[in-house]
Amino acid sequence: MPGIPIRTAALTAAALMTAVALPLVTAGPTSATTTDYDATYYKNAIGKTGASLKSSLHTIISSQSKISYSAVWDALKVTDQDPNNSNNVILLYSGVSRAKSLNGGATGDWNREHTWAKSHGDFGEVTGPGTDLHHLRPADVQVNSVRGNKDFDNGGSAVSGGGGSLTDSDSFEPRDADKGDVARMILYMAVRYDGGDGFADLEPNEKVNNGSAAFMGKLSVLKQWSDEDPPSAFEEKRNQVIYDTYQHNRNPFIDHPEWVDAIW
């Protein structure tokens, strides 16, 4: 299979002259991009916008293999492996590198964080949205507990051990390095789960305190985070591992971050 997709952006003649002696720069999140998968995996989505793009992407990414919730433990040890220490995983929100063997529920362990809180739509740990690796990440048990099922928004007080994450009574703000990751995971879930397969229709909205409703906010903040924190090499590799080894589907907003604004 092709490797991690390469993004490119169209350059003006002047920019080309300037770029001759400069290293390649990855396109920003709002630039038109191309990937190795555009002519194959994404071929029915290229050139579309709005509801048409969302519908096409839903059809594309809904073709996936599913794993059990217990199998998520071992999968996360691969998808989120620390590139500098193969014995560890990198934890969402805190950015801490922690031993793979410390998975569990005690203080000092890491557990399985549902970025789209499983109570928002009440899908729990069911195979499907409850086990979808594109929004499940390893997280410190205590930090995960602080996040709970809160919506995402800016502001609050520092989370102990949260790497710069903030929280208040009704929202959670990840550390800067994870903001784009969180946004793209939430928006993936909104496209993948649209009310079919017996699951709730997940949608982003402009609220917090969504509770058990199948919504996650705030959309405007998530869009801002996606723009300000474009996909990292870690995020891209993770997307590739999920595609190659586990679910055989992709998060389109990692491959094409400009599709966030094209749909919403």
Automatic annotation (TrEMBL):
Keywords: Endonuclease, Hydrolase, Nuclease, Signal
Region feature Disordered, mapped onto this chain: 146-177
Source taxon at top rank: Bacteria
Listed InterPro entries: Endonuclease-I, His-Me_finger_sf
GO MF annotation list: endonuclease activity; hydrolase activity
UniProt key word Hydrolase: yes
Signal sequence, renumbered to the chain: 1-32
UniProt name for this protein: Endonuclease
